[in-house]
Amino acid sequence: MSKSIAQIKAEFEQADGNRRAELYDMYGDDARSGVQKLIASYRKKEEALRLERERLSRMQSYERKYKDAKMICGIDEAGRGPLAGPVVAGAVILPKDCEILYLNDSKKLSASRREALYDEIMEKAVAVGVGMASPARIDEINILQATYEAMRKAVEQLSVVPDLLLNDAVTIPGIPYRQVPIIKGDAKSVSIAAASIIAKVTRDRLMMQYDEILPEYGFAHNKGYGSQSHIEALRRVGASSIHRRSFIKNFISEQ
């Protein structure tokens, strides 16, 4: 008596790669369409996983290039452009040959994917640091210098000393470690991508909290960026304590 499709599916679900290859051979001639759809589904998943691992391998090229550095730290920021809220930097040191599937530039990921990856990064990373610069500090020293300051703070928060920093596009002044700036590094380095996710999720969560205190600006949705509804709220009710005065002067006049 042949096995049911449900039984065959259970076999596939419990099988590792080698066993799955045996199952393809075992059930390849099964005439039932349900079995053939099941085989096609698992082959498609395997191909997608193979392609994802190839993509990740390409994103590890800088980590391989500088493999002599024991502790490679990725650095990135979130929030240089918004009208409100801090700029946040992330610093992440991943273990050698660490695999975190779907790791990518945080801007290319859905919010739910970023949240899941945030948890996985926090679980697997050797060390994670987060630094921030407030809206007032941004107004005081400008956004670029505030970004550098947040990045320095993020590195200072690491529990281990890095041997090399892989930075998204910038060279951070006033820091004693070897640095490699990489243009669009959050899409080219797993370490920088991890840092971009830590920075983005940290900042988004903070803006969600601000939304509870200052609901009129829609921070839960716009995260402080200059959406039409945000600018309309600014003109209607004025600036809040977390708005960047140097960023909003074109939208409202100071009272």
Most strands sheet: 5 strands, mixed
- Summed up, the domain count is 3
Unreliable parts: none
CATH class of the largest domain reads Alpha Beta
**What do the pLDDT scores average to?**
95
What's the shape? flat
DSSP summary, beta strand count: 5
Read across the widest sheet, the strand sequence of neighbours is 3-2-1-4-5
Please identify the structural class as seen in this structure: alpha/beta
CATH homologous group name of the largest domain: Ribonuclease H-like superfamily/Ribonuclease H
Question: Fraction of residues in helices?
Answer: 40-55%
Q: Which value, in Å, is the CA radius of gyration? A: 23 Å
CATH architecture of the largest domain: 2-Layer Sandwich
Distance from first to last alpha carbon? 83 Å
User: Which fold name is given in CATH as the topology of the largest domain?
Assistant: Nucleotidyltransferase, domain 5
Strand content: 5-15%
How many separate helices?
A: 11
H/E topology pattern: HHHHEEHEHHEEHHHH
3D architecture notes:
- There is one protein chain.
- The protein is α/β, with parallel strands linked by helices and 255 residues long.
- The chain has three domains: 5-58, no CATH class; 61-203, Nucleotidyltransferase, domain 5 (2-Layer Sandwich); 210-248, no CATH class.
- Helices cover 51% and strands 12% of the residues.
- The chain has helices at 5-14, 17-27, 33-58, 61-65, 111-124, 135-141, 143-156, 190-213, 219-222, 228-237, 245-248; strands at 72-78, 87-93, 127-133, 164-168, 178-182.
- Strands 3-2-1-4-5 form a five-stranded mixed sheet.
- A hairpin with an 8-residue loop joins strand 1 and strand 2.
- Helix 1 packs parallel to helix 3 (33-58) and helix 6 crosses helix 7.
- The radius of gyration is 23 Å and the shape is flat.
- The mean pLDDT is 95.
